[in-house]
Design brief:
The protein has 498 residues and is an all-alpha fold. Among the domains are: 9-101, no CATH class; 126-207 and 224-237, no CATH class; 400-498, no CATH class. It has 26 helices and no strands.
Length: 498
């Protein structure tokens, strides 16, 4: 549908002239009435589909359609999409027209275009399944599971008449009829909106954005998108089923056009389609993030936070930038705080920690910052080191007690790693990390940070001792040199904190 045509320049000029003359023919012939009213917009759409049209001509035709035929254009576009071979530029202009019309019908057509452009997710042939014996055995075993499981859920939803076919295939028999029966049943499962069950698929590894869509049980997801979601679900649970592989043009220009159109439309249905979009592939996800950045619905913040927690660095950075740009206009604190509380995988990657903390910083919410730093500084190695590096950029945050306590525990953990007798990859930069933390403490000018520096004074590493002494001098104004013993004695003489 979206194939880009290529011909030589001379042929292009001829096609352009013919297209224009054809478009004008009804008017020149003096046609009138319903036939003429329908033929003119159809000819305009046909001309826009050609890759020989200039952008200026497409824009002119689009304005003509919106000015004279706005009330009838949506069904005509739907018909045209099935009849014409649109080039990319043409389809993008059509999407812009639909977004400008801004009705539930135009939003629905855009959603259908978006879903259909990613290819079919149904299993077309029995050859798609890599191991019929293993798949059937796994499903049959699910029938015996005492606890909820993915295999048990699938077995429960399959027709009871398939029991014998499953047993036949599980025995290793090459029964093509049984294979076709099970394939049809699996395709029917992918059409169901109730396939996913949180308990049954709890142990199945799914991207956070996909699981969130299932958990919300979103009713407005289009049927093609439901099929795509369920294909991802089944492929994650059963290794014999191939994963969903979307078909996208490089850069996904029409995907971005549809999603941006949704973000700029006022029709509630368009917002629902944008919020509930199932995006596959980095390009489609990047387009989704860009569109969500324009969306004024607060639910978009929550979705962008999930993208921010992505292992894909490009997506995480894009989501961070989109959130930060909205921070001054919309309250994103709630979405960030909610993710800190519930997302168990949030701190597994250093780039996620950095992006998340930068988004939190944009809110200027001290309680949120304290909560975020406390989580990341007490997290895994990558997480706490990224948090320390971010803290160096904003040392004044060390006036917050949760941040100070988190940094103290992070330094203690790094020093334990540095003293490990095993040559672990994580221990290589431990001393450097502690020195970075002490540098942040030194720059903070926060008197409350003195007790945290004491961790460095007690280290067995001379480089750490040196930086700790420098930090003590900067924070206290005392001049006791590089003797850790003097500084520790000085600390003992200080009155206890109230």
């Amino acid at each position: 549908m979206y194939k880009i045509c290529t011909k030589n320049l001379l042929a292009g000029i001829v096609v352009l002239l013919v297209s224009c003359l054809t478009m004008l023919q009804p008017l020149l012939a003096g046609e009138s009435g319903p036939t003429a009213a329908l033929s003119v917009p159809k000819q305009l759409l046909r001309a826009m589909a050609s890759d020989k049209m200039t952008d200026a001509d497409r824009e002119r035709f689009a304005q003509k359609l919106l000015g004279d035929y706005k009330n009838i254009i949506v069904p005509l576009i739907a018909e045209s999409l099935t009849e014409e071979n649109y080039c990319i530029q043409g389809i993008i202009k059509v999407i812009e027209i639909l977004a400008t019309v801004d009705t539930p019908q135009s939003a629905e057509l855009m959603a259908t275009m978006l879903a259909n452009s990613t290819g079919s997710a149904l299993l077309p042939d029995i050859e798609e399944i890599s191991d019929w014996k293993g798949l059937s055995a796994q499903i049959l075993k699910g029938a015996e599971d005492k606890e909820p499981s993915a295999a048990g859920r699938v077995y429960k939803l399959l027709p009871p008449t398939l029991s014998q076919a499953l047993k036949t295939l599980a025995s290793g028999a090459n029964d093509k009829a049984a294979m076709r029966s099970l394939l049809t049943a699996l395709n029917n499962l992918m059409l169901r909106r109730d396939l996913y069950d949180a308990e049954s698929f709890a142990s199945v590894s799914l991207p956070a954005t996909i699981r969130a869509l299932f958990d919300q049980n979103l009713p407005s997801i289009t049927e093609p998108a439901v099929i795509q979601l369920n294909k991802v679900l089944l492929a994650a649970a059963f290794p014999q089923i191939p994963g969903y592989e979307p078909v996208e043009d490089p850069g996904d220009p029409y995907g971005l056009a549809v999603l941006t159109g949704f973000a700029n439309m006022r029709t509630p249905e368009a917002t629902e389609y944008l919020i509930n979009t199932v995006a596959f592939g980095t390009d489609r996800m990047s387009a989704h993030i860009a569109a969500l950045g324009h969306c004024q619905d607060p639910r978009s913040n929550t979705i962008m936070v999930r993208y921010l927690a992505s292992a894909n660095k490009r997506l995480s950075i894009a989501a961070r930038n989109a959130l930060v740009s909205k921070a001054k206009e919309f309250d994103i604190s709630h979405a960030l705080s909610q993710s800190i509380s519930f997302d168990q995988t949030l701190g597994l990657f250093g780039h996620v920690t950095s992006n998340f903390l930068q988004a939190c910083k944009a809110t200027e919410d001290k309680a949120l910052l304290g909560e975020a730093y406390s989580k990341f500084l007490s997290g895994v190695v990558e997480s706490r080191r990224a948090a320390i590096n971010e803290l160096v950029k904003s040392p004044t945050l060390l006036s917050l007690e949760p941040v100070r306590e988190g940094l103290k525990s992070a330094m203690e953990a790094e020093l334990i790693l540095s003293q490990s007798t095993e040559k672990m990859p994580e221990s290589r930069n431990s001393i450097k990390t502690v020195i970075t933390a002490l540098t942040a403490l030194m720059k903070s000018q926060a008197p409350e940070a003195v007790n945290v520096v004491a961790v460095g004074l007690e280290s067995k590493n001379k480089s750490v001792n040196t930086r700790a002494c420098e930090a003590m001098e900067a924070l206290t104004g005392e001049h006791l040199g590089y003797s850790t013993k003097r500084w520790l004695l000085w600390l003992e003489k200080q009155p206890p904190e109230e």
